[in-house]
Specification:
Blueprint (H helix, E strand, L loop, with lengths): L2 H14 L12 H10 L5 H14 L3 H5 L3 H8 L5 H18 L6 H5 L6 H10 L4 H11 L7
């Protein structure tokens, strides 16, 4: 770390302390990510109210990935900007699956005709029958000139 960077960080630590507290309620890293996404333009208190039921209904990444977009939007509506937030949560799954392909069940990985993680992830998400995931799959992987 450069000397100047360390000096700035030391000043910030002396002004604001080094004890950090997250006010979002979560039990897993995935829940923290979802809660953080919901906290944009929303109070942590409101997010905690919403996620109390949300994390019961969608207990893991797979449940979020299989969520109906419109239903998820209604579930998170009290946090505001729910259209974009729901879309971003589902799109975030793509990145997560691509970066850790082992999160996709082995049978889905083994049935793939490619070694490309991005295509395997999109095939898996699209196969969940979520209309949004299918639309994104077509947008990303089916060239427009193939469609009549």
């Amino acid at each position: 770390m450069k000397k100047r960077t360390k000096e700035i960080l030391d000043i910030l630590d002396s002004q604001f302390g080094t004890e950090y507290k997250c006010y979002l309620n979560y039990e897993t890293p995935w829940q923290l990510l979802a809660a953080t996404m919901l906290s944009a333009q929303c109070t942590d208190a409101r997010v905690n109210i919403v996620t109390k039921d949300l994390f019961v209904k969608y207990p893991d990444m797979k449940a979020f990935a299989e969520a109906d977009l419109k239903e998820l939007e209604q579930d998170i509506k009290p946090t505001g900007f729910y259209h974009n937030k729901a879309k971003n949560i589902i799109e975030g799954l793509y990145s997560r699956f691509v970066n850790d392909i082992d999160l996709i069940p082995a049978d889905a990985r083994n049935n793939s005709r490619t070694d490309d993680n991005s295509i395997i992830a999109m095939d898996y998400i699209a196969g969940m029958s979520d209309p949004f995931a299918i639309a994104r799959y077509e947008e990303l992987f089916i060239p427009k000139f193939w469609v009549n």
